[in-house]
Amino acid sequence: MKGYIGYIRVSTVKQGTKGVSLQEQRDAILRYAEWNQLNVAIWLEEMETAAKRGRPVFNQALKFLRGGKAQGIILHKLDRGARNLRDWAAIGELSDQGIDVHFVTESIDLQSRGGRLSADIQAVFPPITSGICAKKPAFPG
Fold first, then answer.
1. With pLDDT > 90 as the criterion, what percentage of the chain qualifies?
2. Where are the alpha helices (DSSP H) in 1-48?
3. The pLDDT value given to residue 128
4. Average pLDDT over residues 27-46
5. Confidence band for 127, pLDDT divided at 50, 70 and 90
6. Is the pLDDT of residue 62 over 50?
7. pLDDT band, residue 134 (cuts 50/70/90)
8. Distance (Å, rounded) from C-alpha 13 to C-alpha 19?
9. What are phi and psi of 44, to 5 degrees?
10. pLDDT at residue 25 above 60?
11. Selection from 73, 70, 78 nearest residue 108 by Cα
12. CA 65 – CA 95 distance, rounded (Å)
């Protein structure tokens, strides 16, 4: 039986050690995998913003999954995989192809209509908020 990809990501080097660090994400994925009897066979780690497309390690994960090298992917939370709509669409396509997609901190079942709708709604917010924050002028005072 093929195992799963454990994908962990932070946007900056500083985030790699503070907040929800790479190690904290890894630990949470390991606990989730053990609880759900899933085998993490491949670990992929990335320090890159997910607001823009073209993350090399994320693209490698997609290639592994589409090529049948892993049964599915486990992410710490939805926005660790996608903060732009194209990457979210790619994750949705994986699920549509029967590839398992798990989120540790969200109880989302992409195979159910309600779960997919909930996830789609959640996936819309990061690109919107990123755009608002990027365009917000600095406080003059």
1. 38
2. 22-35
3. 45
4. 95
5. very low
6. yes
7. very low
8. 11
9. -125, 130
10. yes
11. 78
12. 11
**Chain mean position to CA 39:** 18
Distances (CA, A) of 84 to 55, 72, 91: 11, 21, 11
Query: Where along the chain do its domains lie?
Result: 4-135
Q: Note the pLDDT of residue 129.
A: 44
Q: Are 92 and 116 in contact (CB under 8 A)?
A: yes
Q: If we measure between CA atoms, which residue out of 102, 95, 110, 96 comes closest to residue 80?
A: 102
pLDDT tens sequence across 76-90:
976 676 667 787 778
Residue 99: DSSP 8-state: -
Burial class of residue 48 (count of CB atoms within 10 Å of its CB; 0-12, 13-18, 19+): middle
Q: CA-CA distance, 19 to 116, in Å (whole number)? A: 28
The CATH number of the structural domain formed by 4-135 is: 3.40.50.1390
Put the strands of the sheet holding 100-103 in their side by side order: 40-47, 4-10, 72-75, 100-103
In this structure, what DSSP letter does residue 107 have? -
Backbone torsion region of residue 37, taken as left when φ is above 0, otherwise alpha when ψ lies between -120 and 50, otherwise beta: left
> Which token pair is 41?
């066979």
Distance in angstroms (rounded) separating the CA atoms of residues 62 and 111: 18
What is the number of other CB atoms lying within 10 angstroms of the CB of residue 88? 22
